[in-house]
Amino acid sequence: MAEDEHGGELRTANSSDRSVSAGSALLPADGFENPGMAEHHERVTDKDPKKAKNAERVVVLLFWISLAFTLFAVVAYFIWPIDRADITTVRANNFFLGIGIAFGMLTLGIGAVAWAKYLMKDTEMVEARHETRGTPATRQRVAEIFAQADEESGFSRRKLLRNSLIGAVLALPLPGIVMLRDMYNANNEKPVKLLHETKWAEGVRLVRDPSGTPIRASDVTIGSAFHVIPETLIEMKENHEPGFLDAKAKAVVLLMRLPEDRLKEREDRKDWSYHGIVAYSKVCTHVGCPVALYEQQTHHLLCPCHQSQFDVTEHCKVIFGPAGRPLPQLPIAVNEEGYLVAQSDFHEPVGPTFWERRHDYNV
């Protein structure tokens, strides 16, 4: 028996007092009824060291399998690359990459659960707690608890199991790290310059995506919206030219017609529209998601990724959400045949605003 600071007696638990560790440890002197905790039953791995060793081998095997699947995901990224000229290659790349990552995480999780279930100590304890104070004694006790947890889990003692877990956990981020290599290539142009030039140019007709049908001004009615690409992209697609998808991703446009009295156009941009017909980049200025949800009544465009909203009546200015600037406007006109054409390329880079942190192309 030992007295606590209030004068009460505490009972302490030890390994030989099974009834105490099963639910009556550290009880006040006057005691209390057992709340219903069952007597502790030892597991087979507690009774038989051979069974415990076998369980440890299984957990180690699971961790090694997790490591193998993670490395497989890295290798699969190179064995089944994505060919930008053949979109069907995405299927094989995603399938094998996903298999590696998924089973790497699954076997790691199963191994961790099995370790806790069959090898870590599972005795139940109840203790009387007083107000926690940050005294030296408290800190010392915390250190003792951590040391006890380390001993009970076997983290330091079971070196093979511990090292296999560390290896599997450290390898798990590798597929993501490897895939980050595609975000930078020393041979690529600077992002601002790259996103400042698209397939739009003076006289290029606006055509529907994906049919490639040219659009007359009379086809665009008030409240309608067309997904549009430059006609030059259709030729790239038909000729299977490399870089088609990259070019399309930068040039996609949403074409709309509003009542002319609803447009609040700047003086320097009044000739960028045609009788209420306006064209804006579909690439959100937040992180580049496709802005394709058009609200006919409010004339707002909505980005479904992070809910940025743009007001089409005022040059697609940002009215809600994290987008940093308005959507770039494509200047349009009508040719002698009545088809809508571009006056020029965009006058600013399309895509995320962060590319424009500096304008000397040295981002």
Tell me what you see in this structure.
The chain is an alpha+beta fold and 363 residues long. A hairpin with a 5-residue loop joins strand 1 and strand 2 (9-10). Helix 3 (49-79) runs parallel beside helix 6 (159-171). The protein is built from 10 helices and 12 strands. It has 2 domains: 2-182, no CATH class; 191-356, Rieske Iron-sulfur Protein (3-layer Sandwich), CATH 2.102.10.10. It has helices at 18-24, 44-47, 49-79, 89-118, 136-153, 159-171, 174-179, 191-196, 231-238, 244-251; strands at residues 2-3, 9-10, 206-208, 225-230, 253-257, 277-281, 293-295, 300-302, 309-311, 317-320, 332-334, 340-342. Helices cover 36% and strands 12% of the residues. The longest helix is centred in the N-terminal third of the chain and has 31 residues, at 49-79. The strands form 4 sheets. The chain has a 4-stranded antiparallel sheet with strand order 3-4-5-6. A 4-stranded antiparallel sheet has the order 7-8-9-10, with no helix packed on it. Residues 1-30 and 357-363 have low confidence and may be disordered.
What's the layout of helices and strands?
Layout: E1 2-3, E2 9-10, H1 18-24, H2 44-47, H3 49-79, H4 89-118, H5 136-153, H6 159-171, H7 174-179, H8 191-196, E3 206-208, E4 225-230, H9 231-238, H10 244-251, E5 253-257, E6 277-281, E7 293-295, E8 300-302, E9 309-311, E10 317-320, E11 332-334, E12 340-342
Antiparallel strand pairs: 1-2, 3-4, 4-5, 5-6, 7-8, 8-9, 9-10, 11-12
Helix pairs in contact: 3-4, 3-6
Region (Disordered): 1-49
Domain Rieske: 250-341
Keywords: 2Fe-2S, Cell membrane, Disulfide bond, Electron transport, Iron, Iron-sulfur, Membrane, Metal-binding, Oxidoreductase, Respiratory chain, Transmembrane, Transmembrane helix, Transport
